[in-house]
Amino acid sequence: MIQSLTIFGDSSSSGLGALGVDGGAFVIQLITFILAFLVLRKYAFAPIIAVLRERQEKIESGVKLGEEMQRERAKLETEVEEKLQAARAEADGIIASAQDNGRQIIRESEDKARTKAEGIIDAAEARIQQDTARARKELEKDLVGLISDATEAIIDEKVDAKKDAALIDRALKKRANA
């Protein structure tokens, strides 16, 4: 090993030799490095760079797609909110209409019931008037008979129909004025 170092260091005492570097070996290593670099660049670096570019494009397209989806989501959320508001307004309108219809039906039912009740009351009043008139007529007949009987009893004579009617009319007028 010492011998190889001395041979290596013997080549020249100035320049690269002073540093312990053999110029010929350096040139060969440089050529080998350049050839290896060119081969790697052509067969290894190009596909690797292509894969990296493809990944970068996919990432960029994914980011763009994500941003587009966020914009689309925001747009859809506003559309959904607008449709919900429209649906709420429509539902409120339907409810108000149903309430108005219900009130109208109630009013109509109340009017029908009131009309029917008034008809029943009118019929009852008419019946009461008829019954009252019938009762008065019967009462007058009974009263005429009683007065006639009373008159006969008081004056002890039979009263004819004309005289009887005149006495009854006078008695009824007295009673109506009293």
From N to C, what is the helix and strand string? HHH
Which class do the helix and strand fractions yield? mainly alpha
Q: What is the approximate shape?
A: rod-shaped
Report the mean per-residue pLDDT as an integer. 83
Portion in helices: over 70%
User: Which spans have pLDDT < 50 for at least 5 consecutive residues?
Assistant: 1-11
The major beta sheet can be summarized as: none
Task: Specify Rg, calculated over alpha carbons.
Answer: 66 Å
How much strand?
Answer: under 5%
What's the total number of strands?
0
Distance between the termini: 170 Å
In total, how many domains does the architecture comprise? Answer: 1
Total number of helices? 3
Summary keywords:
178 residues, rod-shaped
Structure description:
The protein is mostly helical and 178 residues long. It has one domain. Helix content is 89%, strand content 0%. It contains three helices and no strands. The radius of gyration is 66 Å and the shape is rod-shaped.
Blueprint of the fold:
Blueprint: H1 2-10, H2 23-155, H3 161-177
Quick synopsis:
By secondary structure, this protein is an all-alpha fold.
